[in-house]
Amino acid sequence: QCAVKVITTGGRNRATHLLEDHDAIKAEATLLRSLHHPYIVQLIDVFVNPGRAIYLVMEIVHGGDLFDRIVERTRYTEPQSRKIMRRILSAVHYLHMDCNIVHRDLKPENILCVSRTND
């Protein structure tokens, strides 16, 4: 199974600029496909509908985002919080140190949980 994230052109943003530059799309797709870490969702493929959208085919995760998980639970123990933070920091460390990548939008809404029952 996989998930497809659709990035449409709804104004002059980074996605719009990428849609106009096929070489940039290929370069970014190659970079994203090269990321291999247990806490980073794997990009499988990229399709482009010129002038309209970019389709990112990714491994599927069923747990929703961390923000919704925090709201649902209302409370985390220190060991639970530590476990989550270690995983996030492991992924960020990999991006920074091994790949020379900065995330730039790290927030609970952009962190996906693998399953509904497990953190």
Automatic annotation (TrEMBL):
Signal peptide: none annotated. This is Protein kinase domain-containing protein. InterPro entries: Kinase-like_dom_sf, Prot_kinase_dom, Ser/Thr_kinase_AS. PROSITE patterns: PROTEIN_KINASE_DOM, PROTEIN_KINASE_ST. It holds the Pfam family Pkinase. Residues 1-119 form the Protein kinase domain. PANTHER family: SERINE/THREONINE-PROTEIN KINASE (PTHR24347). GO terms for molecular function: ATP binding; protein kinase activity. Transmembrane segments: none annotated. SUPFAM superfamilies: Protein kinase-like (PK-like) (SSF56112). Coiled coil: none annotated. It comes from the Eukaryota.
